[in-house]
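Hey, I'm writing a tutorial for new members on how sequence and structure tokens pair up, and I'd like a real worked example in the thread rather than a made-up one. If someone can provide the structure for the chain below, I'll link this post from the tutorial.
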Amino acid sequence: MAPIALAAVYGGELWLAALACVIGSIGMYEWNNMAGVKTLSLTTTNVVIFLASLTAYQLDEGLISLVIIVLGAMTCGLISLAQHKRFIWAVWGQLYIGLAILSIVWMQDVYGWEAVVWILFIIWAMDIGAYFAGSLIGGPKLVPKASPNKTWAGLIGGALTACLVSWLAGGYLNIAGNQVLIGAGIGLALWSQLGDIIESLVKRHFKVKDSGAIIPGHGGVLDRIDSLLFTLPVLVGALWLWPNFLALNG
């Protein structure tokens, strides 16, 4: 999936928004199915909310696009409440995926493709580093009840790999200074791992191994982007509070 994501990022905001909407819609379908709230009316509402929010953003109505996501989540909750009595899961899913979609489009618009590539590289580096460190070193489990394959060695190895990639890629792309890149690399990597663990807890709660089966051998879309979904809104929140955190906006 990496070449497709990078091509969309480099292609510009419209291509990225289109890909984010497609991936988000598939992810929303998987979430609804996993949470037991899957209906045609709810899934259709999810897609319409994504399209409406991204359209509003393209028309330079950033605040309205955010309001659409939030009010849309409440609407999804009410639909689910009437049909399944699972208000919280429907609201959570729409916010969880919708805010991440809006976040990545905002980053592309405000900070350019370099910032998006940087955060993608950090997330991928965390996953790859954690996999190899955990496989080669093993050792004590990180959260055996939620995700029995995760180890402390994997967490440390992934964080160090993400830190290195953040420093190398961020320096090459002139994202920020060395101290910022190193600190952000570790912080974002650890936060992304928390997102992975939380989705593992959700899947365990619903007694499913994977969120879906659209990617052979790898599960569903949510299984591939759970760390990114959890990290993007937090990064955007930090950038909103400290807009010069990245040198690209300085």
